[in-house]
Write a structure and sequence with these properties.
The structure is a single chain. Helix 7 (about 145-175) runs antiparallel to helix 9 (about 210-225). A hairpin with a 5-residue loop joins strand 7 and strand 8 (about 245). Mean pLDDT is about 80; it is low at about 1-10, about 10-35 and about 40-70. The protein starts with a helix and ends with a helix. The chain has one domain (about 70-285). A two-stranded antiparallel sheet has the order 1-2. The chain contains ten helices and eight strands. By secondary structure, it is mainly alpha-helical.
């Protein structure tokens, strides 16, 4: 009875591991294994017969130099920037690389846009006030009339020089009136580059040339200014004996050369400021963020 009870008792199920070990051998004594179903191809992995597609181009390509540095260039090949956030700086291009030359019409339009910008009213007003305080060119006199004459002279000087240097001669001589910022190198390298642009410029074809537009444009503007609306020999009164007294005439070759040198010197300083202004602008914006 004990033997029969032992034979009839239920046997415990063996584990999966024991069961697989007891399976009969298949083909040369190797244990049969179940092959997992093939994984479905993911969106980033091409399936059989398909060509791998590149990753998103907008993410794969690095940010351009212009966008990385906050370039202010516009689509016309000029700029929408302002020095110290006020004075027009439309003929300075940053990180430009190879850009097409300006047409004659574009040269005249960008110069006109800067010359007749509303901020110029304030700028010429300040220069006229300083000139009157120093009583430079006494032939203009003092008071409201003297101030008005000085204001008109400064406005005419700036406008005439801008057009001859930036539009008229560049169009005739096929030279590029823009200033191309260097943006790299040491301080002295960049400053030297900016100063050299007074005598070296690009042609419309991209070659380096002597800057006839700047040198001769400033000379022509100085001659027009000196021999037209600036004061000549002017009566300023009479002495106790009734003898008339006159100011010295400003319409001389020496004065023309002095005005020409002043304009070229002013333009040289302006080019140095233009070279480093983008760096100053970025630092100022970071401080306000």
């Amino acid at each position: 009875m004990t033997f029969c009870a032992a034979q009839s008792a239920p046997q415990p199920e063996s584990s999966d591991a024991n069961r697989s070990a007891q399976l009969p051998a298949v083909g040369g004594g190797q244990t049969q294994q179940q092959t997992p179903p093939p994984a479905k191809p993911s969106a980033s992995q091409p399936s059989a017969g398909q060509t791998a597609q590149p990753a998103d181009q907008s993410q794969a390509q690095p940010q351009s130099k212009d966008s990385a540095k906050g370039s202010t260039n516009d689509t016309s090949g000029t700029s929408k920037d302002r020095l110290f956030f006020a004075l027009p700086n439309f003929l300075t291009v940053e990180n430009a690389g190879n850009i097409p030359p300006l047409t004659a019409g574009q040269k005249f339009r960008v110069v006109a846009r800067g010359s007749f910008d509303p901020i110029q009213i304030v700028w010429y007003g300040a220069l006229s006030g300083i000139s009157q305080a120093e009583n430079s060119e006494p032939g203009f006199g003092q008071g409201a009339e003297g101030y008005g004459k000085r204001y008109g002279a400064y406005a005419a000087d700036g406008t005439i020089e801008n057009f001859f240097v930036g539009a008229i001669l560049p169009s005739v001589l096929h030279q590029d009136p823009r200033f191309f910022q260097k943006a790299d190198g040491s301080f002295f390298d960049r400053a030297g580059y900016a100063v050299s642009r007074i005598v070296v410029t690009r042609s419309d074809s991209g070659l380096h040339q002597f800057n006839f537009s700047e040198i001769f444009g400033a000379a022509i503007a100085s001659a027009i200014s000196t021999y037209s609306y600036h004061p000549g020999r002017t009566l300023i009164g009479r002495n106790s004996e009734g003898v008339p007294r006159y100011t010295a005439s400003d319409r001389t070759l020496k004065n023309t050369a002095s005005v020409w040198g002043s304009q070229v010197g002013y333009d040289t300083i302006t080019l140095v400021v233009k070279e480093f202004w983008p760096d100053i602008r970025r630092k100022l914006k970071k401080q306000h963020q």
